[in-house]
């Protein structure tokens, strides 16, 4: 009884001391682009607050814990229009915040990173999947929360190989992003023992498909485009530009499953995900935003929660101290994916499972059973330490 009383008194004294001390205040900036890119499907049109809504929810979560630790988190949002100076905006945001969640294309992210070189501000990439940002163009002040294309492709390849669907017909779009995704898929096929029996390119000829004759044209075009292919188990589409992949299911010449940019899709998050307590965050997100949580929302949420987790653990909002903790052996963050996520110290990429979804359900989660690794099975997804081209000179 005496020991319990002493313990209660000790906790009360510590709480009183924490409240008496100056609060730890942590400013987090959010740097993104104004507007959203339209999708082919009317039911998948992104919201204007896609991404930033996840960061807002994480700030609430951080402050829920922070009020017991005398820590306060703030979010400052900046959305850039086309043509606005990325470097100038990043510098201004960094003058007021020690951390910036960046939802930017690769080139814009590099401009922001280089503008902040020498400052204490830490960037967290919550949008771009470009592998080069973690490899030949890696930066010491950028932590990557969004998965890479190679992680997404490896996650898909593991499942297809596990299913013994090893013969792939690869269809690639004509835009640069499509080609980069195709590169990742080729690498994944070679890595896990799949065979690409043939590649085809779908040229973007423009034109409106949402016309009265659009469905008829698509129904005629897709079977012709996919006919006379060598024997294959699955058609894998690389179409990040959203030109053709969504039109492939049920329209191919041969009755085959579709994967990649349509059909079975690898992603960091999906509204159908309901395991490992995910329903809890899904419901809270819907209550706040009257819509479902996207992958971009979850990536931004995770970025802000990483900052909150580190701050609570070291009781400091100093960007360098937080960065060092995030990149250390003691860091991990829970993100409703069945295991705690950690950071790869060789390229500052967040390890994470990848969901495989069909638009209505989560079909599977990679890494798949049987794909082993000497350190972490999560490192079977993406570029591993012996393969990396990143040279971080801190």
Give your account of this protein's structure.
By secondary structure, the chain is of the alpha/beta class. It has 2 domains: 2-147 and 270-352, Response regulator (Rossmann fold, 3-Layer(aba) Sandwich), CATH 3.40.50; 150-266, Rossmann fold, CATH 3.40.50. The protein is 36% helix and 17% strand. The chain contains 10 helices and 12 strands. The chain has helices at 2-20, 52-69, 86-94, 106-115, 149-162, 176-192, 214-226, 278-289, 295-314, 319-326, and strands at residues 24-33, 71-80, 99-103, 122-125, 142-144, 167-173, 195-202, 234-238, 258-260, 265-267, 354-357, 362-366. The strands form 3 sheets. It has a 5-stranded parallel β-sheet with strand order 2-1-3-4-5, with helices on both faces. A 4-stranded parallel β-sheet has the order 7-6-8-9, with helices on one face. The radius of gyration is 23 Å and the shape is globular. 43% of the residues are buried.
Summary keywords:
394 residues, alpha/beta, Rossmann fold, 2 domains, 5-stranded parallel sheet, 12 strands, globular
Average of per-residue pLDDT values:
92
Question: Given the C-alpha coordinates, what overall shape results?
Answer: globular
Helix content: 25-40%
Which structural class do you get from the secondary structure elements?
alpha/beta
- Main β-sheet, spatial strand arrangement: 2-1-3-4-5
CATH homologous superfamily name of the largest domain? Response regulator
Distance between the termini: 52 Å
Spans with pLDDT under 50 lasting ≥5 residues? Answer: none
What gyration radius follows from the Cα positions, in whole Å?
23 Å
Q: How many individual helices?
A: 10
């Amino acid at each position: 009884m005496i020991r319990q009383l002493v313990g209660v008194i000790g906790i009360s004294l510590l709480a009183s001391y924490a409240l008496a001390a100056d609060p730890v205040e942590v400013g987090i900036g959010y740097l993104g682009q104004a507007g959203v890119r339209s999708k082919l499907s009317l039911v998948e049109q992104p919201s204007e607050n896609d991404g930033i809504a996840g960061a807002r929810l994480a700030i609430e979560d951080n402050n829920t814990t922070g009020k017991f630790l005398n820590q306060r988190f703030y979010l400052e949002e900046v959305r850039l229009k086309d043509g606005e100076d990325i470097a100038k905006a990043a510098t201004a945001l960094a003058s007021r915040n020690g951390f910036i969640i960046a939802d930017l294309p690769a080139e814009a992210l590099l401009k922001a990173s280089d503008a902040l070189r020498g400052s204490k501000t830490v960037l967290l990439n919550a949008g771009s999947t470009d592998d080069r940002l973690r490899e030949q163009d890696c930066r010491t002040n950028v932590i990557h929360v969004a998965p890479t294309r190679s992680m997404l492709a490896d996650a898909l390849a593991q499942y297809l190989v596990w299913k013994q669907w090893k013969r792939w017909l690869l269809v690639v779009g004509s835009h640069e992003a499509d080609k980069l995704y195709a590169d990742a898929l080729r690498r994944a096929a070679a890595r896990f023992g799949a065979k690409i029996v043939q590649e085809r390119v779908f040229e973007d000829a423009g034109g409106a498909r949402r016309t009265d004759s659009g469905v008829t044209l698509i129904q005629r075009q897709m079977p012709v485009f996919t006919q006379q292919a060598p024997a294959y188990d699955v058609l894998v589409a690389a179409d990040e530009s959203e030109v053709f992949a969504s039109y492939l299911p049920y329209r191919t010449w041969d009755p085959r499953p579709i994967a990649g940019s349509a059909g079975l899709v690898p992603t960091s998050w999906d509204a159908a995900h309901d395991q490992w307590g995910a329903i809890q965050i899904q419901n809270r997100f819907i209550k706040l935003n009257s819509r479902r949580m996207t992958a971009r929302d979850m990536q931004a949420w995770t970025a802000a929660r990483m900052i909150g987790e580190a701050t609570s653990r070291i009781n400091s909002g100093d960007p360098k101290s937080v960065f060092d903790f995030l990149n250390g052996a003691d860091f991990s963050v829970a993100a409703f994916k069945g295991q705690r996520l950690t950071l790869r110290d060789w390229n500052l990429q967040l390890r994470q499972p990848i969901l495989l979804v069909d638009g209505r359900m989560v079909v599977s989660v990679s890494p798949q059973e049987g794909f082993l690794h000497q350190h972490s099975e999560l490192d079977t997804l993406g570029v591993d330490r012996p393969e990396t081209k990143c040279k971080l000179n801190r």
